[in-house]
Amino acid sequence: MKTHKIAVIAGDGIGPEVLREARKVLTNVSSRLKSQLVFEEFDLGASRYLKTKEALPESVFKSIASCDVIFLGAVGDPKVPPGILERDILLKLRFDLDLYINLRPCILMDGAHTPLKSKNSNDINFIVVRENSESVYTGLGGVFKKGTPDEVAIQEDINTRKGVERCLRYAFETCKKRNHKNQLTLVDKANVLTHAHGLWRRTFEEVGQEYPHIKRNAIYVDAAAMDFVRRPENFDVVVTNNIFGDILTDLGAILSGGLGLAASANLNPSQAPRGDKNCSALFEPIHGSAPDIAGKGTANPLAAILAGQMMLDFLGETKAASLIMEAVQKTVKSGKIFKKESADLAISTREVGDLVCDAL
């Protein structure tokens, strides 16, 4: 059998708890796989950093990079100053492995809670393609006269033709493959950020000529935020830059069942599912480490389970991925896992994992 080597980073807070259930589901479906999954654990996160003052040593990074994909729980802990673990682990993996696409489905399942009372699963069904390697997240910039009344802080917004075009091409291909409404919406702020987002608009139109069957629409980010709430049914595939995508997908997650159902993939499609140099993807729930509920058994593992489902699909295990998706949908629709009119669990983390396995 073909072997896929998976780097596992359970991380901080609820990360180990939700990843445990996701791996339980992957084990349950293993007999249906065409390949063998080999997991290698990496002890990264707050505990290691507090002991060693190193978040991700270069030797460990090289070991992770030799794997096919990464399966991440969460990073972040109040004992570590904000930004250190996120920058030195998550952003380093994204940037140094050139995982230039962040893919986030915003799809409401029957039985999941949405705060939009007049909307249902037919209305909230779209995917966001977020550029994942540029924008203000590169960290370029600096501070001048720090701590004085004349302090100046500069954070550069990086947009390259290469980065923009490859993101847009992936979005068009995603829309083509999805074959839902065949509509791609670009979200930007081209009326103010005329240089950076002018590049996005021009490239969007140029690449779009190669996809005449896909309807193109470009809207400003403030209008997009409003329409996510008042007209989510208008969206099919959305493409945007790094920072707008980061913000809008959290809104999309709340509309489509809450953070406990929100999975994401960080991809380098050009070397998928296995390149000759580095690993090509990182899969994770988007909810963060939630240290306030860590260890209480109340964290929703479905986002991690769905991240595992996305991982299998990426690795070519489409049948097993479909089985997991169907099992999650059945579990959510059963009405057993959520409190009434809420995204909060009515049962424990472990029990949710057990129900998904039962559905499989």
What does this structure look like?
38% of the residues lie in helices and 20% in strands. With 360 residues, the protein is an alpha/beta fold. Helix 1 (15-28) packs parallel to helix 11 (349-359). The mean pLDDT is 95.
Terminal Cα span: 23 Å
Mean pLDDT: 95
Enumerate the strands of the largest sheet in spatial order, edge to edge or round the barrel: 2-1-3-12-11-4-5-10-8-9
The parts where pLDDT drops under 50 for at least 5 residues are: none
Number of helices: 11
The count of DSSP E runs of length 2 or more, i.e. the number of strands, is 12
Radius of gyration: 20 Å
What are the SSEs and their pairings?
Elements: E1 2-11, H1 15-28, E2 35-41, H2 46-52, H3 58-65, E3 69-74, H4 84-96, E4 101-107, E5 125-131, E6 141-144, E7 152-155, H5 161-178, E8 183-188, H6 196-208, E9 215-220, H7 221-230, E10 237-240, H8 242-255, E11 263-267, E12 281-285, H9 302-314, H10 318-333, H11 349-359
Helix pairs in contact: 1-9, 1-11, 5-6, 7-8, 9-10, 10-11
Summarize the entry for a quick read:
With 360 residues, this protein is α/β, with parallel strands linked by helices. A hairpin with a 7-residue loop joins strand 6 (141-144) and strand 7.
Characteristic terms for this protein:
alpha/beta, two-stranded antiparallel ribbon, globular
